[in-house]
Amino acid sequence: MARAGLTAERLIRAGAELADEVGFDQVTVSALARRFDVKVASLYSHLKNSQELKTGIALLALAELADRAADALAGRAGRDALTALADVYRDYAREHPGRYDAARLRLDPQTAAASAGVQQAQMTRALLRGYDLPEPDQTHAVRLLGSVFHGYVSLELAGGFSHSAPDSQESWTRILDALDALLRNWPAAPPPAP
Amino acid sequence: MARAGLTAERLIRAGAELADEVGFDQVTVSALARRFDVKVASLYSHLKNSQELKTGIALLALAELADRAADALAGRAGRDALTALADVYRDYAREHPGRYDAARLRLDPQTAAASAGVQQAQMTRALLRGYDLPEPDQTHAVRLLGSVFHGYVSLELAGGFSHSAPDSQESWTRILDALDALLRNWPAAPPPAP
DNA sequence: TAATTTGCCTAAAGGCTTTAGGCAAACGCA
DNA sequence: TGCGTTTGCCTAAAGCCTTTAGGCAAATTA
């Protein structure tokens, strides 16, 4: 019989599409085999196991996010850059909810360190250069921004802000305004208690 | 043979313990049956299906969180209240990582509306009364705080801030300082473009 | 074209979910 | 106390998912 032309690359890419269509937790080796009209066992020549498929999708999503972030930041600074980066996450999560979920997969430390997640942190740091924060405040701010972006987007995706006024877009804009103001006016560390 | 004395309540409680021990996604009806030394099918007299078990754990976690939040807020205001509430989430996630994950489960809108998640939003709102924000800014701030608490705690739990300086506790404190400052100094809505 | 490699297949074992039907323990009421 | 009813846990079985082992044919290479 004719061969289907499977590769790990193609499988992971198709897995990512599947995740966006049916949810990341519904992505199984079996479902993927069905999509390629091929027997399940065949995929195991290309994937070590189900975990590898999921990790692959996660890494793909992280890389795509980092790409978009790099594009968005090019030539921008300050509030402009902040908004652009924030929208990258939000838009990606809306366009690719399955991939976005995948990007939240717990990776083992080694895999995580080699992933594009690292570049994302560096880009947030680059963005903050426009705000001129000294270390270690810059790190605190990186963590704050990461938390807000991730937190807001997940809560929004989970439906937390729908069906209630004001609409989510307005909150998003105002929250970015507020963060911009905060970064311009970052409070100094309080003096240690005597 | 002697009966095991199963009830939906006990199963869900045991499921929550199991989640904390082995991770929420490892909670299965089968694993729970093993823990009670009972055949799998027996649990289906008490649980409609696996989903009901997971939803039950999620609702339990949301209720426990709301309880702790109510305790923490009693008699506190301003920065004090902010810190107390924030620590409720962070501490709960560290003590009960499985339950905390469960609390993030996608609930159908009806279930979500009846859950203790609603009270949590109300408590955040109560906390904000100390900062005297007009509507709709108060809602924006509720969403911001929810995002930061959830975002920070999930990233921390996923290991995002470990093995890098400064330590996570310091960032947490400084981020709460910053949020306190921001709430005291919430920027007005920018004028609409002409 | 012959030899080798590679890719997809069949087969099979083991785990999880869920339903159906059975027997015995516990309960409730005379 | 005894009898009937309800309830709780059991066995059995079907369906889907993962993963491994071993086989045959297509693609590649010499």
Sheet of most strands of chain A: none
Element string of chain A (H = helix, E = strand): HHHHHHHHHH
On the 0-100 scale, what is the average pLDDT of chain A? 93
Instruction: Report how far apart the termini of chain A are.
Output: 80 Å
> In terms of quaternary structure, what is this?
homodimer
Number of H- or I-type helical stretches of chain A: 10
Strand residue content of chain A: under 5%
The shape of chain A, in one word, is elongated
Radius of gyration of chain A: 20 Å
Unreliable parts of chain A:
none
Q: What is the number of strand segments of chain A?
A: 0
SSE topology:
The structure is a homodimer of 194-residue chains.
Chain A: H1 8-22, H2 29-36, H3 40-43, H4 50-73, H5 78-95, H6 97-103, H7 109-114, H8 117-129, H9 137-157, H10 168-184
Helix pairs in contact in A: 1-4, 1-6, 4-5, 4-6, 4-8, 5-6, 5-9, 5-10, 8-9, 9-10
Chain B binds a DNA duplex (30 and 30 nucleotides) through residues 1-6, 28-31, 38-46, 49-50.
Any key phrases for this structure?
homodimer; 194 residues; mainly alpha; 0% strand; DNA-binding
Summarize the structure.
The first copy, chain A, has helices at 8-22, 29-36, 40-43, 50-73, 78-95, 97-103, 109-114, 117-129, 137-157, 168-184. The model of chain A has no long low-confidence stretch (mean pLDDT 93). Helix content of chain A is 69%, strand content 0%.
Structure write-up:
Two copies of one chain form a homodimer. Chain A has helices at residues 8-22, 29-36, 40-43, 50-73, 78-95, 97-103, 109-114, 117-129, 137-157, 168-184. The first copy, chain A, contains ten helices and no strands. Chain A is an all-alpha fold. The model of chain A has no long low-confidence stretch (mean pLDDT 93). In chain A, helix 1 crosses helix 4 and helix 5 runs antiparallel to helix 10 (168-184). Helices cover 69% and strands 0% of the residues of chain A. Chain A binds chain B through residues 104, 106, 109, 112, 136-137, 139-140, 143-144, 146-152, 154-155, 158-161, 163-166, 170-171, 174-175, 177-178, 181-182, 185-187, 189-190, and chain B through 104, 106, 109, 112, 136-137, 139-141, 143-144, 146-152, 154-155, 158-161, 163-166, 170-171, 174-175, 177-178, 181-182, 185-187, 189-190. Chain B binds a DNA duplex (30 and 30 nucleotides) through residues 1-6, 28-31, 38-46, 49-50.
